[in-house]
Amino acid sequence: VRVLHLKENIASLAWLLSSTRHGGFPVVGRPKPDHAQVFQGTIKRSELCMLLENEHIFEPEINNESFSSHPLPYEKITVEKLPKPSRLAMLLNRYTTDPRYQQLFINLEPYINKSAMSVQAHFSLQRTYVIFRTLGLRYLTVVDLQNRVVGVITRKDLMPFPLEERLRFQLSPQ
Question: Boundaries of each CBS domain copy (predicted)?
Fold first, then answer.
């Protein structure tokens, strides 16, 4: 599972967006310093791309203290379609190759969907399907009993033919 952290490194984020086609990502964080990383919410790929076009919000990591930047307004990061894909490709390349971006971070906390749905790892497949159908979801985060991310299930995963094959494989004697 490709998860993001509340404070994410710019170079790592650019590499992730360059190397995957995922439409969104679960975001994890520690509720308290001595706790494990748990599911905090989700963020869409398009929102991450729009954030990366605003270099003024990048900051150096300073002793795990909170970031001081002012978040971008919601209207500036929510888009139906990316305005300049070629510019984004150039930026992602620069962020992954220029060493100074290894030292810069972005605070994702103001931008994540904290009310994102998740299901437990042993949640009913039939009920998961109903959730997808009724809410029109594209992906759903799967968590364990401690709310740690253990997977992501997509709409494609619930399509009838692949689902039947997977069930047949799981149920057949090894």
Answer: 112-169
